[in-house]
């Protein structure tokens, strides 16, 4: 999530991100992310300061929260790696249109996709 926010702040020309840059906000720490999820009512207060992982839904909520509702995230469900091939055109379109990294994950694994090569 921090990688996604960092990319947005450093590389994006979206009007909302430009407004966010002007506030001088920086990339939130793990603790700030956890506290935000507690504030939003997604997690219990004991979550803040813990070593628990967050998933795609929490990442999306946090990005929206930390960008003052200026950036929304799309969650695409892919239940196994083989299904990712079917999403190649959608990923390509995302990178051509938005250029932002894509977070993928499942269970306890998380990866960031920075681009695709389609032959």
What does this structure look like?
By secondary structure, the protein is mainly α. It has five helices and two strands; from the N terminus they run αααααββ. It has helices spanning about 1-10, 15-20, 30-40, 55-65, 90-95; strands at about 100-105, 110-115. A two-stranded antiparallel ribbon has the order 1-2. The longest helix is centred in the middle third of the chain and has 11 residues, at about 55-65.
Comma- or semicolon-separated keywords:
119 residues; mainly alpha; two-stranded antiparallel ribbon; 2 strands; flat
Short description:
The protein has helices spanning 2-11, 15-22, 30-39, 56-66, 88-97, and strands at 102-106, 109-113.
- Percent range for β-strand residues: 5-15%
Biggest sheet layout: 2 strands, antiparallel
**End-to-end Cα distance:** 29 Å
**Integer-rounded radius of gyration:** 15 Å
Structural class by secondary-structure content: mainly alpha
Order of helices and strands: HHHHHEE
Protein topology:
Elements: H1 2-11, H2 15-22, H3 30-39, H4 56-66, H5 88-97, E1 102-106, E2 109-113
Antiparallel strand pairs: 1-2
